[in-house]
Design brief:
It is a single chain. By secondary structure, the protein is α+β, with helices and mostly antiparallel strands. The chain folds into three domains: 64 residues, no CATH class; 55 residues, no CATH class; 72 residues, 3-Layer(aba) Sandwich (MutS, DNA mismatch repair protein, domain I), CATH 3.40.1170. The chain is 37% helix and 16% strand. It is globular.
Length: 249
């Protein structure tokens, strides 16, 4: 039933989501008589409410996080913390939010998904967040530290995904919920309107390689975009190998 609830929520206007609405849609999806779930016993209603909460927690946490008041945000898993340029603090900043706000002079930037402080406050930030695992000099790119480990592929996710160009970016759509952690760690950002994850075009190779690192995933790359340099090289190498085999005969 959780899978059906997830599909209902994904295909509906978020503002319309409530327990009664989902129960009504479940009746249609499951082919039940009208009122079967809407007027179900209390225990059944509680079970459906719990499943709705689980789906919303899994599928909409990233999208809602930046808009929600800090006091309403639930603690996130303890990820590493990285110090970057000018001074950019990324990673599990929710865990050290109180320390960062106590410094003063910092600002949260949605576009960078991190806190930015003036360079002259680097020592203060360093002292306030001694658990930060990496620090880099200013690069001008605003990206994560080069010491950040590449994300491990999912295991047995079985996700069907499509990667294609969207304006000046690439868009990953499909069963993204199953590989949400990988997409997040690859540097993507969720776009609610497009129902997909947005990446820089230069990140296409690493995104494709990571997603295809799980053999149960089906990753379709297309949409009219140009093949990456890596893919072109692989294709050229395969063509040369075939030519060599023909010559040897």
């Amino acid at each position: 039933m959780k899978a059906e609830i997830a599909r209902i929520i994904a295909s509906s206007d978020t503002s319309a989501i409530n327990n009664i609405y989902v129960r009504e849609q479940l009746e249609k999806v499951l082919g039940l008589e009208e009122g079967t779930l809407v007027n179900a016993p209390k225990e059944k209603k509680q079970e459906i409410s719990r499943l709705i909460d689980e789906v919303l927690d899994e599928n909409e946490r990233d999208e809602a996080e930046d808009q929600a008041p800090l006091s309403a945000r639930k603690p996130q898993p303890k990820d590493p913390i990285f110090l970057g340029s000018c001074v950019l603090v990324t990673g599990d900043t929710q865990r050290v939010r109180d320390k960062l706000t106590s410094i003063g002079g910092g600002e949260w930037l949605d576009s960078l998904r991190g806190w930015v402080f003036p360079e002259e406050m680097r020592d203060a930030v360093r002292a306030a967040v001694p658990e930060a695992v990496a620090e880099t000099a200013a690069t001008g790119g605003g990206g994560a530290s080069s010491n950040e480990a590449a994300p491990k592929p999912s295991v047995g996710a079985g996700a069907v995904l499509t990667i294609g160009p969207h304006k000046r970016a690439i868009l990953v759509t499909g069963d993204t919920l199953k590989v949400k952690e990988q997409l997040k760690r690859l540097g993507g950002s969720w776009n609610r309107a497009l129902k997909g994850w947005i990446f820089k075009p230069a990140d296409q190779d690493k995104v494709v390689d990571c997603l295809r690192g799980d053999p149960t995933n089906t990753v379709n790359v297309g949409g009219g975009g140009q093949p990456s340099k890596k893919r072109k090289a692989e294709k050229a190498q395969a063509t040369c190998s075939a030519s060599d085999d023909d010559d040897s005969e």
